[in-house]
Amino acid sequence: MRNLDDLDVKGRRVLVRADLNVPLDGETITDDGRIRASLPTLRALAGNGAKVIVCAHLGRPKGEVKPEFSLRPVARRLGELLGQDVAFASDVAGDGARATVEGLQEGQVALLENLRFEPGETAKDDAERRAFAERLAGLAELYVGDGFGAVHRKHASVYDVPALLPHAAGGLIAAEVDVLRKLTEDTERPYVVVLGGAKVSDKLGVIANLLTRVDRLLIGGGMAYTFLKAQGHEVGGSLLQEDQLDQVRGFLAEAAERGVDLVLPVDVLAATDFAADAAFDVVPADAIPADRQGLDIGPRTRELFAGKLADARTVFWNGPMGVFEFDAFAGGTRAVAEALISSDAFTVVGGGDSAAAVRRLGLPEDGFSHISTGGGASLEYLEGKTLPGLAALED
What we know:
The chain is of the alpha/beta class. The chain has 15 helices and 17 strands. A hairpin with an 8-residue loop joins β12 and β13. The termini are close together. 49% of the residues are buried. It is found in: Cytoplasm. Substrate binds at residues 19-21, 34, 57-60, 116, 153. InterPro entries: Phosphoglycerate_kinase (IPR001576), Phosphoglycerate_kinase_CS (IPR015911).
């Protein structure tokens, strides 16, 4: 996989596939972490005299132009962070984009409108996707893939465009791949993985693969209740995936067979309803009342998990331990994050809600070895899958 140093970019139009899929409240960006992660590559290209054309997606407009998914607010924030005006194209690969690109001087940056306004970007039909990729590639002379959060998608801007232009991996993708290799090759032990989030079904593949690699697997968040139910415990009104119980029983049996320490909550915050101001009690994880639902791991579990992380040499964490968006139920996620910060381990936060939680809770980002920009991509890499966007950058 070539990197930026392998490209002569001076005076040339360089199309950069970035990941700028940030959360918006109206036109206000509530977390600009992904924009900031894209800056080193964009600065390097602009500093070397490239005419930088950034493309990215926002949300799921499903091939339709929807103003609420416009990247215009992102262009403004990107310009503020780069310290220069960022030209914004009124379309993705049409007349507006061509005019914007033609106006670029060396060292200047433009952002195209939301890629997913074009049906061809996400088309399942290879010919339709390729036709859009040809229009997009026609704007540039070189391609840099740097949107790690999208490399697990077989989309035109990620998979097809690199086949049409000389290409290289940007600094962000290179860094992400380097970190993920450390989690899959010659990993320093004890190797501990912490998984949370809502659904077991979202992490079936990664759990199956990790059980062959890790020393300990700590399970929290909504997915923990399916594990507890699989052990025969009642979970009240907590989030439960009944259709995954057999699969989870298989995971529990395999962990025991392989000697993997699979750790579940021993207590939870059991709330009357799913609300920020809900009344709650701390109850044993195997005795959740029928009229309550678990919204966070309890204080004993926080201590238990911290103890299981204390001597780790490598830690991967993906998924919050509770409903961290509600202050009353953010304590478990904070406890795990703080345990990672206190650890001497190589610590990786696996993107998505975990990365958002770190920022929302005001925790120091430099307290972790790496915070990934791609939750889904990270998980699929750890499953052992071939990621289309990475395969497209290989020569």
